[in-house]
């Protein structure tokens, strides 16, 4: 296990700088614009996903929550598919290292990347709130860590499952299959009918939790339980599948 | 000692029927032997190595390495593998890629840098230490593959087309390094897949010819590479006719 502990910071720094820089640039440029230009869409999200008073007037929170979910999907996709794409699976999995331990280490390193990126983004948004004029940006670091954890635990484990089943690209496609219809359902007329049906979807729950955490409302006990249980099951199944996958040593 | 008994592995190809990569294959390799596996493309050499390395599961049959399953063997000691095309993350530099593999090899923390420096020197990669793996030529990648084997030499090495892409100078150097490894570890067992029969004759003690997932012949390697090459070609021709 000590070798994996030694490897962990390297795995984090593999992706964290890129994730943080890309997220900061992208969000600090686009969120103020999106928040102003897409207020109707954001309202649709808010109504459709029954955010209620927790979100207040903020149009940033749904965007940040959705961004965290998509980033979690992107980062978690790499846990297995990067090994396939890079072709270094055979060199890693013939060394004296536990496959599940190695994949779990990669998975956890993705979470650290997501939290780092989230903290930087929120710091930038808060710092520029005065200039951007966005209402309700007072996002706390604790809320971001909680929302990132919820996204990672649920979305990250879900994508890990797709990533362990399929080769590169298909995992992200699987994640999009989950999120695009939900996002569309949230804003489509009439009267967000489809979105109300989506209340039953677990990803809805995760988005609710993320946004509630971002908005600083800690009353999320039921949701946390469902996310924790679902995420745990998904991680266990995904790692079991990923560990059993075969690797070819021919180019 | 490696023992494969009745190992069968089939693959399902998209839109096609199943392909038998290994067909009730039996193989017995004594410890300390260098065994060459030769055969045409698609004969099952890489699948055979994958099965021994625990990367591919056989549909039937058993694989034992010193009495243990490949999975157990990998977990406790590891198996040295040199794929026919060495691939490492393209953006990562050579030294960092080797450092990470050294960590996975359970090298003591303090020795990692010195060991990586040593293997880069042995394989002529010192000047390329900061080059990205993605920018390396085929030959340099093979040398990188060799370097990762030398970080912490295992007692079992699986070398799939190890000489491909290497220039004559580095082929000779490769042979020297294998000799050095064998001197360092008398119990070293090497399985080597290659199409280059001349080189095989210089490296291996024994040779098996594989075709359509079966071993069709087993030969002792003697000091007449030309005669051996002719014999192997005859065997492959005969197997084709059958």
Label this structure with key terms.
heterodimer, A: 251 residues, mainly alpha, 78% helix, 0% strand, B: 242 residues, alpha/beta, six-stranded mixed β-sheet, three-stranded antiparallel β-sheet, 8 helices, 9 strands
Question: TL;DR of this structure?
Answer:
By secondary structure, chain A is mainly α.
Can you put this structure into words, describing what you see?
The complex is a heterodimer of chains A (251) and B (242). With 251 residues, chain A is mostly helical. Helices cover 78% and strands 0% of the residues of chain A. Chain A is built from ten helices and no strands. In chain A, helix 5 (99-132) crosses helix 6. Chain A is globular, with a radius of gyration of 19 Å. With 242 residues, chain B is an alpha/beta fold. Chain B contains eight helices and nine strands. In chain B, the strands form two sheets. Chain B has a six-stranded mixed β-sheet with strand order 5-6-7-3-8-9, with helices on both faces. In chain B, strand 8 (206-211) and strand 9 form a beta hairpin. In chain B, helix 7 crosses helix 8. The mean pLDDT of chain B is 89. The interface between A and B is medium-sized, with 26 and 35 residues.
Distance between the termini of chain B: 32 Å
Largest interface, and how many residues on either side?
A: A-B, 26 and 35 residues
Please state how the strands of the largest beta sheet of chain B are arranged side by side: 5-6-7-3-8-9
- Beta-strand percentage range of chain B: 15-25%
**Average pLDDT of chain A, to the nearest integer?**
71
Number of strands of chain A: 0
Please give the count of helices of chain B.
8
Helical percentage of chain B: 25-40%
Largest sheet descriptor of chain B: 6 strands, mixed
Low-confidence stretches of chain A: 48-57, 193-200
Oligomer description: heterodimer
Count the E strands of chain B.
Answer: 9
Q: How large is the share of residues in beta strands of chain A?
A: under 5%
Distance between the termini of chain A: 30 Å
Order of helices and strands of chain B: EEEHEHEHHHEHEHEEH
H/E series of chain A, N to C? Answer: HHHHHHHHHH
Rg of chain A, alpha carbons: 19 Å
Gross morphology of chain B:
globular
Rough shape of chain A?
Answer: globular
Category by helix and strand content of chain A: mainly alpha
Q: Which secondary-structure class do the elements of chain B indicate?
A: alpha/beta
């Amino acid at each position: 296990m000590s070798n994996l502990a030694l490897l962990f910071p390297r795995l984090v720094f593999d992706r964290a700088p890129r994730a943080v820089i890309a997220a900061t640039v992208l969000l600090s440029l686009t969120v103020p614009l999106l928040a102003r230009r897409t207020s109707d869409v954001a309202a649709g999200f808010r109504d459709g996903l029954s955010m209620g008073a927790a979100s207040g007037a903020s149009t940033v929170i749904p965007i940040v929550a959705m961004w965290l979910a998509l980033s979690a999907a992107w980062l978690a996709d790499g846990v297995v598919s990067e090994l396939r794409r890079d072709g270094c699976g055979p060199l890693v999995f013939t060394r004296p290292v536990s496959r599940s331990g190695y994949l779990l280490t990669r998975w956890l390193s993705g979470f650290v990347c997501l939290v780092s990126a989230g903290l930087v983004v929120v710091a930038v948004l808060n710092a520029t709130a005065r200039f951007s004029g966005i209402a309700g940006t007072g996002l706390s670091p604790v809320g971001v860590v909680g929302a990132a954890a919820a996204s990672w635990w649920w979305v990250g484990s879900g994508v890990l499952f797709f990533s362990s089943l399929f080769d590169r690209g298909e995992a992200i496609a699987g994640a999009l299959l989950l999120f695009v219809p939900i996002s569309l359902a949230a804003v489509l007329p009439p009267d967000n009918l489809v979105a109300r049906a989506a209340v039953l979807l677990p990803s809805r729950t995760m988005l609710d939790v993320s946004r509630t955490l971002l908005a600083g409302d800690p009353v999320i006990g039921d949701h946390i339980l469902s996310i924790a249980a679902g995420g745990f099951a998904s991680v266990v199944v995904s790692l079991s599948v990923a560990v059993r996958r075969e690797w070819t040593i021919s180019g | 000692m490696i023992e494969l008994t009745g190992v069968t592995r089939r693959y399902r190809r998209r839109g096609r029927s199943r392909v038998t990569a290994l067909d009730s294959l039996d193989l017995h390799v004594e410890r300390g032997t260098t065994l060459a596996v030769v055969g045409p493309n698609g004969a099952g050499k890489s699948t055979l190595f994958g099965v021994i390395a625990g990367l591919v599961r056989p549909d039937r049959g058993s694989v034992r390495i010193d009495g243990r399953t490949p999975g157990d063997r990998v977990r406790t000691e590891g198996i040295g593998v040199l794929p026919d095309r060495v691939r490492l993350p393209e953006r990562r530099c050579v030294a960092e890629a080797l450092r990470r593999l050294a960590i996975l090899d359970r090298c003591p923390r303090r020795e990692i840098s010195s060991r990586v420096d040593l293997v880069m020197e042995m394989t002529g990669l010192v000047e390329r230490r900061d080059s990205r793996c993605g920018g390396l030529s085929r030959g340099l990648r093979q040398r990188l593959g060799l370097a990762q084997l030398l970080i912490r030499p295992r007692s079992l090495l699986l070398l799939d087309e190890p000489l491909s892409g290497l220039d004559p100078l580095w082929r000779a150097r490769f042979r020297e390094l294998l000799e050095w490894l064998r001197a360092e570890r008398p119990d070293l067992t090497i399985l080597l897949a290659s199409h280059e029969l001349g080189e095989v004759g210089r490296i291996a003690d024994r040779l098996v010819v594989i075709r359509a997932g079966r071993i069709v012949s087993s030969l002792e390697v003697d000091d007449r590479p030309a005669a051996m090459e002719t014999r192997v070609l005859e065997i492959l021709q005969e197997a084709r006719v059958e």
